[in-house]
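pasting Major facilitator superfamily (MFS) profile domain-containing protein for the record, 407 residues
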Amino acid sequence: MLGPGTQAWSKHILAKLTLFRCHGHFSAISGYWPRVKQQFSLVSEADERSSPLGDGVRPPPLEQIDSATIEDQDVFIVDWNDPDDIPNHQNWPDSRKWTATVLVLLLALLVGVCAPIEAPIAELAARDFGVSEIVESLSVALFLAGMGFGALVAGPFSEVLGRSGTYTVALLLMCIWLMASPVSQHISPRLVFRFLGGFSGAAPLVCSGGTISDLWSPTDRTFPFLFFAIVGFGTPALGPVFSAWIPNSPHLHTWRWAEWVAVLFSGVVFIILLTFQPETYSPLLLSWKARHLRNITGEGRYCARHELDKIRLPQRLRLACARPFIMAWNELTIKLASLYLSFVYIVLFTFFDGYPTIFQETYGLSTGMTFTLLAGITVGAACTAILGPIVHRKSVATKISTEQESR
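structre below
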């Protein structure tokens, strides 16, 4: 281990290199860096073990670091400099990427199942609460309304606080609201809890696409997004499939068990998320990397690019929350895609009311059999998977550019 005097000399040399690098005179003294790098590697062994980024994060060569000047102070902009940078999620092996992808697909599956789970039990619940079936059907409508409002803030929060933290907090709140719903003895608090459950449940569904984009390069996202679309549009039909059979079960004597099953499912998913879900949001990871470099070098001028603005958290959240409205207003592509997805979801959830009218009242099927027919929607969504290899093969063959168009 190096003595205090040698450590001080190392930091002094690094400061000199910093000064020369920022003023365009690095080449004359670039030979000093290997020794400084080696000494900082020795000095920082204990710090690296405590890094949130894991092992292997050390100061990169200065020629790979961009510099900037803020408030008359030269700073080092931290980025992914090494193609083998361990914390960079783009460098993860495919097995690890698919593990993280399956976790977010599980989150989307949970929300998709919980949204319409009360459709088959609306008549029984309305009878228990002494209200009309139309009033009880608000439990599904308000859950969807909550998802709509929650989506406006879930995405921006994930861009400020990171994906994993947003998932954890949102899913914990969702578990609480889902648990409060079956214990409610009056319709009013029950509807409120369903709305809050949808508001919290928006985060896993909205941010899953962002996590997939974090993990995969543009040319490799075909299959992850294909599976995400299948889960997003196919799983809402699965919730009513099993909840329709619960009231007739010889062991589960109340319709409330449909909600308790959702609570148990969400609890299991929450534990899995808390245990295995990694952080994938690149700006947050770069902030951790910059903080780690500041700790192991004693040089306070390492910072991530998005930290250069020095905007306070409340202001960053306001800007992030305003961005969806600005983009929806100015971008025609987003308008058309939003209208199309809204239409698809309207048709999808209309089936939950239309199927009982057609198959129960007209053909005399039982409630369980009627809602089991909704599984055809899931099968149809899964059948679209055959298009994935075709699209992927053509996109690779034509070498489609992944650079965004100029604006």
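DSSP finds 18 helices and three strands in the chain.
The radius of gyration is 26 Å.
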